[in-house]
Structures are given as C-alpha cells and as structure tokens.
Amino acid sequence: MALTGTYAPSAAEWVRNQVADYEASDGEKAGTLPGTSYPIVVITSVGAKSGDLRKNPVMRVERDGSYLAVASKGGAPEDPAWADNFRQHPEVDLQDKAEKHTYRVRELSGEERADWWEHAVATWSTYAEYQTKTDREIPLFLLERA
C-alpha cells in the first residue's frame, strides 16, 4: 500500500465500524453495506482539505481487475466528500477482502462513463434509482492498478 499519513476516522459511526470490522477480518466480517447483502471494498484516500487518510466502504463494482467507485451518496444533491479526495489526490489504496493494492483514479465521461454506468447498474440496480433522486450526474471514478 502506497499511502502513508495520519488516519482520520469518519465522523459517521457506521462508517468507522464498517471499516474497522472489514479490515480486522480481511473483508470476511461486515462485508456489506448496512441494509444490503451486496459486497463492499474499502478505499483509502487522502483528504482533499485535511491531507489525512480517509477510509470509505463502497459497493464492489469490478471488471477485469479495475474497480468503479460510484459517487451516488444515495441520490443526495451533493457528491460524497471522498469524490473531492479522488479529484485532488488521484491515488488510492483499495482493499477487496484480503487483497490490498494501490490504484490510480480517473473520473469517467462520455462513452466510457456510459459503459461503466451500465455495468454499475447491472451490478447494483439501486444506482438507477439513486440517479432519479438527484439532478446531478452521479460521478463515476475508475480505479486501475498503479
């Protein structure tokens, strides 16, 4: 794992607990988001404002060794904070069960975004519902091994 620095746990208790359980069990415990049965990964990024390490559980959307981070925030009107982290610091660490690697991040647009959006919705259909709840286009971030 390439990122170093001070870890600043989330202000949200469920996020802190989810990350701690996931990391302690190599993804075997608490491997789903609350209220779902779909698997997650944990992404560590550098805070855009603080510079501290931030860890977030996100739905596991993978294809051919690349991962997609869907900045849906459940259809909220604003992006999740980690989206700005990715934009400012496009290198992250990702843990998928016991596997941990460093990834380069890029925000998708155009046909590539459309292709990955289709894959995301096929993987987790709730993303389509989230898009109907917001006027913003939900950002998609592709994570490719560094």
From TrEMBL:
Stated name of the protein: Nitroreductase family deazaflavin-dependent oxidoreductase
Any one GO molecular-function label of the UniProt entry: coenzyme F420 binding
Catalytic activity: oxidized coenzyme F420-(gamma-L-Glu)(n) + a quinol + H(+) = reduced coenzyme F420-(gamma-L-Glu)(n) + a quinone
Family (UniProt): Belongs to the F420H(2)-dependent quinone reductase family.
Native species: Nocardioides oleivorans
One GO cellular component term: plasma membrane
UniProt-listed InterPro entries: F420H2_quin_Rdtase (IPR004378), Split_barrel_FMN-bd (IPR012349)
